[in-house]
Amino acid sequence: MKVHHVLLSILVSILGGSLFAAGELQVTETDKAITIMRGKVLVLTYHKAEVPPPEKADPIYKRSGFIHPLCAPNGEPVTGIHPADHYHHLGLWHAWVKTKHGKDTPDFWNLRGRTGRVRYVKTVLLHKGSDRDPSVGFVVEQEQVAYKGKERKETVVLKEQFGIRVEFVTGENRVSYLVKQTNVSSEILVLPAYRYGGGLAYRAPHHWDKTNSDYLTSEGLDRTNSHATRAKWVAMWGPTAKGAATFTVMMHPENRDFPQRLRTWPPSSHNGAIFFNVVPAQEKAWEIKPGEQVTESYLLTVSNGKPDKKRIEKGWKAWAGRRPETP
Predict the structure, then answer these.
(1) Residues 6+ apart with CB under 8 A from 317
(2) Are 201 and 245 in contact (CB under 8 A)?
(3) What are phi and psi of 274, to 5 degrees?
(4) CA 57/CA 86 separation, integer angstroms
(5) CB pairs under 8 A, 24+ apart, for 97-100?
(6) Where do the domains of the chain lie, and which CATH numbers do they carry?
(7) How far apart are CA 43 and CA 71, in angstroms?
(8) Average pLDDT for runs of 10 along the chain of length 327
(9) The model's pTM
(10) Fewer CB atoms < 10 Å away: N or C end of the chain?
């Protein structure tokens, strides 16, 4: 019992926030994945093992350390994986793109260049819920690893503590998403200003396009005018087999460069496909020194139906007032 309480306190410390009433949630782990269910309805799957790309794609696109599917309360997925236009898009993930590390320029996002990647390392803990806290979740360790020089020498640059906590509240799935990155190398990781990369990234189901889906930001912008703007939250919606669903990303005020800048796609890009990225270094260059730790905190909500701006704003204010705690 004491061990359970210690693990629970670590998880709450990592993910922060108050505790809500929740539905019947379960978390299970296999050699390949961690899965969270609500009864018989899938909420999300996190991939520990590398997932291969489609058969005709370069095997370099296999990767671990991402979430897919993430589902609406109706059980239908709101994420897409390995679209033909971007095989490295993986549901819900994060990675740095344009970087400088010593004499090298590792790209942990675009796998085709073979200069870097993100990978799962180990599971730190599972939280299976309790009478006091019916939420469930997990904490895993990930790495952003560079392949340096002509020899492609493997160098772990960032060690990540990645925590997820899931609740079912007022009919929606709520996912706390917290990443702590520590530069464990001997050199500064320089992050030049660039249009995408770093923070949370999202690719919607492949059938979401300019005819049936859109973005809505906290500033009231959509796919035509939201790119490179700032926002507190962004909602994205589109059709599922059981009706419309909305996926919302809320950014915490203590995240770097808040309100954070966005990468969204216009109607002319890939037939209006929905891709989204929170970009902490889009406007201002950044660097992570050896031994330095940085934190990014998001609250993800998935609901049935199209976005309700007033409801989302109310939810963001309630969550944003709580400070993310550190372990």
Answers:
(1) none
(2) no
(3) -95, 110
(4) 11
(5) 97/194, 97/196, 97/197, 97/198, 98/191, 98/192, 98/194, 98/197, 99/189, 99/190, 99/191, 99/192, 100/189, 100/190, 100/192
(6) 2-320 (2.70.98)
(7) 5
(8) 45 42 80 97 98 96 98 97 97 98 98 97 94 92 96 96 96 97 98 96 98 98 98 98 98 97 97 97 97 97 97 97 62
(9) 0.92
(10) N
